[in-house]
Write a structure and sequence with these properties.
The complex is a heterodimer of chains A (369) and B (282). Chain A is of the alpha+beta class. Chain A folds into 2 domains: 231 residues, P-loop containing nucleotide triphosphate hydrolases (Rossmann fold, 3-Layer(aba) Sandwich), CATH 3.40.50.300; 127 residues, OB fold (Dihydrolipoamide Acetyltransferase, E2P). Helix content of chain A is 25%, strand content 34%. The two termini of chain A are 37 Å apart. Chain B folds into 2 domains: 59 residues, no CATH class; 209 residues, MetI-like fold. Chain B is built from 13 helices and 4 strands. In chain B, strands 1-2 form a two-stranded antiparallel ribbon. A two-stranded antiparallel sheet of chain B has the order 3-4. The longest helix of chain B is centred in the first third of the chain and has 31 residues. Chain B is globular, with a radius of gyration of 24 Å. Classes of the chains: A alpha+beta (369), B mainly alpha (282). Chains A and B meet through strand 6, helix 2 and helix 4 of A and helix 8 and helix 9 of B.
Chain lengths: 369, 282
């Protein structure tokens, strides 16, 4: 296994379109790195540049300290799992998995051993004689994974490997991939547009937008301290609430005003907001940090109560989501399933001020978390 | 009764008058002439009047033996077979390879132009080329079987390349990328991945090219006529003389010539059916 180094990587297409701009990242050995972002953000392009399937326009790519910009994919010691699996339809599962080894002229006995070992790990032993057309989606996905494993490469590249599976299978395979990472101790770079996959699998997540890396961090850090409005909105489901608010100051306290509501910012966050007094900022608060009056709020640093009217009530089973209008904006909140609020109810909510995020309205960068 | 996507029973609509009408047309156009061929081939002499509709009094196979002798069946058959097999095999190898190069680079101007250039060949009638080709092959000492084979390989290139490039569009590029990452060179990728996947198209090309070459009279007639080497259709022309046509013998020999192609079709058509790329992606 090995580390990777991406220095000022850029991709410009012949028509002048910049797919990836100045991408810098150091990937440690055995890391599980996730590239996440909306479609067209350059995450797959970056992965394909690492694989060698796409030319690198500018910058340096190193795998295990060796510059590989102009090295053929086969010589980069990487294995890739494609979104579409890309299994060879005319070959059996065994032959599909043995193909990369046969090309490397590995002795037949070693091929047999490697394929059976991979098949055992992925529970494919009984399917080795089948053709891909006789396999289910999940089984095909595992074969694609097996083809990568048999080579024991330095780096695994996975391009949205679960996106063609149904929801249930996706959850199951997600756990399998996680186990596989622990078991193989491999460096994995994984592309997805699904932020749940990103949060559950990655040791670090790279959030991308329009070819530009937005933030690289651990899942928890990314969730609690998003660096800008895009990351804050992209990570977390349901999305973080954003409300335009005016920063004010009264009696030595910094406040945020939206509509008829004014909430007091705790002292710990006040200093960062001082330069914004009189200006409009974007206040961000996650649905689980919006507390309805019937919910437990022990130990939380609550804001002043805010009147809201419930517009949508969604029961999710053990909990519920409520979406409501407040003066000056709208908020969504996680509540317990026993909460009496229903569509049309007039309720009171408060924000957990320790979890409040504030973003500069112009630059969209985080001001304070 | 058929079922729809949700499992509900749907009444199938069948237009019986049209169906029966079409079957009758097929009977008159295809089955009856075929019956006539067999009927005449097993008769001592050409049946006259309404006799053609009745079964023959005796099934006489002597015509077949005589036809084989007159056409020097085995040597003409071997010539036809060699020309057909070589033309088909080389077509499959060369045309699929050319189509792969063109089809996967269609966004480049040079490849797009070469594609259009090759396809344009389909619109040039053989009659226009015939006389210059006779001259040209004679000068190049290709007025023989080799020349005929070469001409067939070129004649069917436009159609075959069009078929192959069309089929290639349905083969996901991800397969080739996977092979590249797995360590395959372009040649290995073509040979080990693309060529086997194109099997249904190889069968189509083999049937279309094979049938056309096997049945063709014109090319061998003008290119190697008078060389003393005959293909089956060429040899069969001996039944037509200035004094008339010996139908029983001619039809017996036509039936003999048909047989290998029917067998070939039955073998190859299985390959056409069935989406071979099922399970490649998704």
């Amino acid at each position: 296994m090995a580390g990777l180094s991406l220095e000022h990587i850029g991709k410009t297409y012949p028509n002048g379109y910049e797919g990836v701009k100045d991408f810098n990242l150091e990937i440690e050995d055995k890391e599980f790195i996730i590239f996440v972002g909306p479609s067209g953000c350059g995450k797959s392009t970056t992965l394909r540049m690492i694989a060698g399937l796409e030319d690198i326009t500018s910058g340096t790519l190193k795998i295990d300290g060796r510059v590989v910009n102009d090295v053929e994919p086969a010589d980069r010691d990487i294995a890739m799992v494609f979104q579409t699996y890309a299994l060879y339809p005319h070959m059996t599962v065994f032959d599909n998995m043995a193909f990369p080894l046969k090309l490397r002229k590995v002795p037949q006995a070693d091929i047999d051993k490697a394929v059976h070992e991979a098949a055992r790990i992925l529970d494919l032993e009984k399917l080795l004689d089948r053709k891909p057309s006789a396999l289910s989606g999940g089984q095909r996905q595992r074969v694609a994974m097996g083809r990568a494993i048999v080579r024991n490469p330095k780096v695994y590249l996975m391009d949205e490997p679960l996106s063609n599976l149904d929801a249930k299978l996706r959850v199951q395979m997600r756990a399998e991939i996680s186990k596989l990472h622990d078991r193989l101790g491999a460096t994995i770079i994984y592309v997805t547009h699904d932020q749940t996959e990103a949060m559950t699998l990655g040791t670090r997540i790279v959030v991308m937008k329009d070819g530009v890396m937005q933030q690289v961090d651990t899942p928890s850090k990314l969730y609690s301290e998003p660096c800008n409005l895009f990351v804050a909105g992209f990570i977390g489901s349901p999305q973080m609430n954003f409300i335009d608010a005016t920063v004010g100051e009264s009696a030595g306290k910094v406040t945020l005003t939206f509509g008829a509501n004014t909430i007091t910012v705790p002292d710990a966050k006040a200093a960062a907001l001082k330069p914004y007094v009189g200006k409009v900022v974007i206040a961000g608060i996650r649905p689980e940090d919006v507390i309805e009056e019937h919910e437990h709020a022990d130990g939380k640093n609550l804001s002043e109560p805010i009147d809201a009217t419930v517009t949508v009530y969604e029961l999710l089973g053990s909990e519920a989501m409520i979406y409501g209008d407040v003066d000056g904006g709208s908020v969504s909140a996680h509540v317990s399933a026993t909460n009496p609020a229903r569509t049309g109810s007039r309720i009171k909510v408060a924000f957990d001020m320790d979890k409040l995020h504030v973003f500069d309205k112009e630059t969209e960068q985080a001001v304070v978390h | 009764m058929a079922k729809d996507a949700f499992g509900a029973k749907v009444k199938e609509r069948a237009n019986w008058p049209v169906t029966v009408g079409l079957i009758l047309v097929a009977l008159v156009v295809i089955v009856f002439p075929l019956y006539m061929t067999v009927r005449i081939a097993v008769s001592k002499s050409m049946p006259t009047g309404l006799d053609i509709f009745s079964l023959p009094a005796t099934w006489d196979l002597a015509n077949f033996a005589e036809a084989m002798e007159k056409t020097q069946f085995f040597s003409s058959f071997m010539n036809s077979l060699i020309i057909t097999v070589v033309a088909v095999v080389v077509s499959i190898l060369v045309h699929s390879l050319a189509a792969y190069a063109i089809g996967r680079n269609m966004e480049r101007r040079a490849f797009k132009l070469s594609y259009l250039f090759i396809i344009a060949g389909m619109y040039v009638p053989f009659a226009i080329l015939m006389m210059p080709l006779v001259k040209q092959t004679a000068i190049m000492h290709l007025d023989n079987m080799v020349g005929v084979m070469l001409l067939y390989i070129v004649f069917y290139m436009p159609m075959n390349i069009m078929l192959y490039t069309g089929y290639l569009r349905n083969i996901p590029v991800a397969l080739e990328e996977a092979a590249r990452v797995d360590g395959a060179s372009t040649w290995t990728t073509y040979w080990k991945v693309i060529f086997p996947i194109m099997k249904p198209m190889h069968a189509t090309v083999a049937i279309l090219t094979g049938l056309a070459v096997w049945n063709d009279v014109m090319t061998p007639l003008v290119i190697m006529g008078g060389s003393g080497v005959y293909t089956l259709p060429l040899a069969q022309m001996s039944f037509q003389t200035a004094f008339g046509t010996d139908y029983p013998l001619a039809f017996a020999s036509y039936l003999l010539a048909m047989l290998p192609m029917i067998i070939f079709y039955i073998v190859a058509q299985k390959q056409i059916i069935g989406g071979v790329t099922n399970g490649a992606v998704k």
